[in-house]
Design goal:
Blueprint lengths: L1 E5 L3 H13 L4 E5 L11 E5 H10 L1 H10 L1 E3 L2 E5 L2 E5 L4 E5 H15 L2 E3 L15 E4 L6 H5 L1 H4 L1 E15 L6 E8 L2 E9 L5 E7 L1 H6 L7 H11 L1 H4 L4 E2 L11 E8 L3 E3 L4 E4 L14 H19 L6 H38 L4 H9 L7 H7 L1 H13 L14 E3 L2 E3 L3 E3 L14 H12 L4 E7 L17 H17 L3 E6 L33 E2 L13 E2 L2 H18 L6 E6 L4 H6 L14 H18 L6 E6 L10 H13 L4 E5 L17 H10 L3 E5 L5 H9 L5 E4 L1 H5 L3 H8 L12 H23 L1
Parallel strand pairs: 1-2, 1-9, 2-8, 5-11, 9-17, 20-21, 20-29, 21-22, 22-25, 23-24, 25-26, 26-27, 27-28, 28-29
Antiparallel strand pairs: 3-7, 4-7, 5-6, 10-13, 10-14, 10-15, 11-12, 12-13, 16-17, 18-19
Bound molecules: flavin-adenine dinucleotide (FAD) and flavin mononucleotide (FMN).
């Protein structure tokens, strides 16, 4: 085959040499506009894993790289006058020039033609090529010529960064944070050869503008950075090797994705590779890794499917199918890490203490979990666990999940909450044996707090005929039976979630009809009831149209909430949560998607919050002062024009000002048009943001299914408690099970169950040992 690689960066060169190795008869040329050994940039990093991968494909190149690289294990943070270091992170740093030189030399050795100082206009310049690799970098001309074919999706990010070098040598991957009168700057620093370190300085756009750096030329920018990081640079200079760039050398990161990676241009097959087709932010330093691994995968496909011209279409198809999965995974992780650096100044730097800031930074991509950190550096993690536990006056190191939490007069023994879950099993609003068994089992299962499902303050506030209520003395007595049981038979606390279904009321139990939220038939023998909402808009198009609440309705419902709350204390509850989420009555006021009122209760967020805050204030007064109150909100409607996470911060601030102790950060279910992005811990970023920006304690909830998730969330300060719902349906003793799974044995079991404890612990210990042994094979 005749192959032309446009662009002699890591992608083009590495592909060329691997392909030549696979089939020495192939005629391969790399066209590069720069001179040999003339490139931008300082060092690049990639992980040990990338090098292992390279070793399998070309031992010679890997050996050269290994000779030239700088390996280090530690990450060091310089923050607020403190230096914190943790180990086990395993990075390889190498000069970009050095890497390219190794690849160029190996290409020449194998017979790849290198054509320097040739600027390719387009893929059409090489009509006799069977295959053209467009490895022409982030601004790829080949890609840009055919946007309708490749369908690039390019997002320009708000932070500014400048890529510099210094002769000060750092023996760890170092992160420096400095505050100026206008905001925070951070530097990502790592040594890549015996004389030089890469020094990338980054800050938000508004900080950059406030310092006038948009008007600064390169030298002025360097002078600024040298002054800012003077104490760390210890007299060393900062240097640029991008003098060829005109004007400011500060860049915005661009995230590139493409729907299609290849195309037939009439003569040749063209395929994008490396930065031309995808980029990953330097916060996880993986652009070069992606480029090298693209090259490996394409060669692997030629090796598997055949390296003849007729196989090219299948090879390219398979190449994209395989690669794009890995790329998306990495881009997602890079995106989280990038966002962390974009917001860290405002969100974390001022709020978190250095120990927790370090933890938050290390777990920024959400790919590294608590137990993963333990594997990397056990001593550091245990030190951090002891620091975290110490803040709750608990001696020694223990996983954050198993530290106590105190709010007002209530101390939870640990940080796990059984999230409220409707059971649709009440009769006339009454909870019975079903609920005693259901809640009792979960109270014995180890969680610190068991929340009862949404309970209505009036019969018309229920979701279904099977939902519980608290509006008469019988209801109080029924609940008292359960709370007494929980308090005498377990050391869990029990909370009530009080809520009015509003526009989502009068529906079938989920197993009765076509699923959740389905309206009852008009002639249902159990009987429908009229609905109330902020505005007369049904939740589902075929749902009952609710009545927009009058002031009189509001007064009546507020009085119901108060009366119900007055029953909740004698009913024995330790905790009260006001349900303002999921499109129910109070939520219907908050969201602009469901509130179209033109009075003082509609319009601005302030107006939309007015009624929910009135209810909250009335309930708070009726609830004993020594007991805590949380508010559940939908922190994101997942619909254009609905509540956003930024609004959620304002909502949380308003409830905080009204006396709420905690915000339980759920999302969605406000509009049937929602398009949530599900994934592990997918709502935790809302809890994190609200906690830092509104300065109020939070509960994280949603797809938290392992102790490792809980520990990572709490340790990073993303929430104060974690609510776990569905896993508790499968396993009432979820907390006890997870403790045993991670080898935490200092936890009390119900006394009659104790003989099961050591057996479960021993079983998990065997599993862990087996896993360790298998990894060692
Ligand atoms: C500040 C910063 C820090 C980074 N740090 C890291 C890091 O630590 N680790 C990491 O892995 N990655 C890092 N990267 C990313 C990394 O540099 C790229 O992801 C990687 O180089 C991509 O390789 P590539 O071969 O696809 O593209 P490039 O390396 O950009 O190579 C493209 C080549 O094509 C040539 N070219 C372009 N157009 C033409 C044309 N028309 N004709 C001829 N030649 C052409 C260019 O001159 C260039 O040599 C960083 C990037 C930045 C901006
Ligand atoms: C069966 C079921 C019933 C639920 N009922 C309620 C409820 O009454 N009140 C509430 O706020 N959330 C309710 N939820 C939502 C959960 O509390 C929780 O926020 C959601 O399931 C996400 O957590 P998970 O991923 O751990 O399941 C319910 C969820 C389930 C699965």
């Amino acid at each position: 085959m005749k192959i032309v690689c446009i662009g002699g960066g890591p992608a083009g060169l590495y592909f060329a040499l691997l392909m030549k190795k696979l089939g020495p008869h192939h005629d391969i040329t790399v066209v590069e506009r720069n001179k040999p050994y003339d490139t931008f940039g300082w060092g690049v990093v990639f992980s040990d894993q990338t090098l292992d991968n390279m070793r399998q494909w070309d031992a010679e190149t890997a050996a050269e790289v290994q000779q030239a690289f700088n390996h280090w294990d530690d990450i060091e943070l310089h923050f607020k006058g403190r230096v914190i270091r943790s180990g086990g992170h395993g990075f390889v740093g190498i000069g970009r020039k050095k890497l390219l030189n190794i690849l160029q030399a190996r290409c020449e050795q194998l017979g790849v033609k290198l054509a320097f100082e040739q600027d390719a206009d387009s893929d059409l310049d090489y009509p006799d090529a069977d295959l053209i690799i467009a490895s022409d970098g982030i601004n790829s001309r080949v890609r840009n010529r055919l946007p309708e074919v490749f369908q690039p999706d390019i997002v320009t990010r708000p932070n500014r960064y400048i890529w510099l070098g210094t002769n000060r040598l750092y023996d760890a991957f170092t992160f420096l944070f400095e505050k100026t009168e206008h905001g925070w700057f951070q530097a990502h620093v790592y040594k890549f050869d015996e004389k030089t370190s890469t020094f990338i300085v980054e800050c938000p756009e508004h900080v950059w503008l406030a310092h006038g750096l948009d008007k600064a030329d390169q030298q002025q920018s360097i002078d600024f950075c040298e002054k800012l990081f003077a104490s760390n640079l210890q007299g060393e200079k900062l240097m640029t090797n991008a003098r060829h760039l005109r004007g400011s050398a500060w860049l915005n990161f661009q995230r590139v994705k493409c729907a299609n990676w290849s195309h037939f241009n009439g003569n040749s097959h063209v395929v994008l590779m490396g930065d031309a087709v995808h980029t990953a932010h330097f916060a996880i330093g993986s652009g070069t890794k992606l480029a090298l691994e693209d090259a490996i995968e394409l060669v692997r496909q030629f090796k598997t499917l055949g390296d003849t011209a007729d196989r090219i279409p299948q090879v390219l198809q398979k190449y994209q199918a395989v690669r794009e999965i890995d790329v998306i995974r990495l881009q997602n992780a890079a995106w989280n890490a990038m966002e962390w650096f974009e917001v860290c100044g405002e969100r974390y730097c001022d709020q978190l203490e250095p120990e927790q800031f370090m933890y938050s930074m290390l777990t920024r991509s959400q790919r590294i979990s608590h137990e993963n950190l333990r594997l990397r550096d056990k001593a550091w993690l245990e030190g951090y666990e002891a620091w975290f536990a110490g803040r709750t006056a608990t001696p020694g190191a223990r996983p954050p999940m198993f530290t106590p939490y105190t709010l007002r007069s209530v101390t939870l023994k640990n940080r796990v909450v059984v999230s409220p879950m409707a059971q649709y099993s009440a009769v006339d609003g009454r909870v019975g044996d079903y609920h005693l068994v259901h809640l009792g089992a979960r109270a014995m299962g180890g969680a610190g707090l068991v929340m009862v499902e949404m309970t209505a303050p009036s019969a018309d506030g229920r979701i279904t005929h099977g939902c519980p209520g608290l509006w008469n003395d019988t209801h109080t007595a029924d609940f008292k039976r359960i709370t007494d049981w929980v308090h005498t038979q377990s050391d869990a606390k029990i909370g009530l979630q009080i809520g009015h279904a509003g526009p989502k009321g009068s529906t079938c139990r989920p197993w009765q009809g076509a699923g959740m939220d389905q309206p009852m038939a008009a002639d249902d023998p159990e009987g429908n009831w009229p609905l109330l909402a902020a505005s007369s808009q049904p939740y589902l198009p075929h749902g009952i149209v609710p009545q927009a609440m009058s002031r009189k309705d509001m007064d009546r419902v507020t009085a119901d909430f108060v009366a119900s709350t007055q029953r909740a204390a004698p009913a024995g509850f330790d905790w009260l949560e006001l349900h303002c989420a999921h499109g129910y009555l109070l939520s219907s006021f908050i969201s602009p998607l469901t509130n179209h009122r033109t009075d003082a209760y509609g319009g601005s967020l302030e107006n939309r919050l007015r009624y929910p805050l009135e209810v909250f204030a009335a309930v708070r007064v009726a609830w004993p002062e020594h007991l805590p109150m949380s508010v559940r909100i939908s922190a994101h409607d997942w619909v254009e024009g609905g509540i956003t996470p930024a609004d959620a911060v304002e909502i949380a601030r308003a409830f905080k000002a009204a006396g709420a102790d905690m915000i339980d950060c759920s999302s969605g279910q406000v509009s049937a048009k929602q398009k949530p992005t599900y994934g592990r811990m997918y709502q935790t970023p809302f809890a994190d943001r609200i906690r830092q920006e509104a300065g109020i304690a939070t509960i994280a909830v949603g797809a938290i299914s392992e102790a490792d998730h809980v520990n990572s969330i709490l340790a990073a300060g993303r929430a104060d408690l974690c609510a776990v719902a569905r896993p508790h349906l499968a396993n009432p003793a979820w907390t006890l099970t997870e403790a045993a799974r991670i080898g935490f044995t200092d936890i009390a079991w119900p006394r009659a169950y104790v003989s099961g404890k050591s057996q479960l612990e021993a079983g998990f210990a065997r599993e862990r040992a087996l896993q360790t042994a298998t990894k060692g094979d």
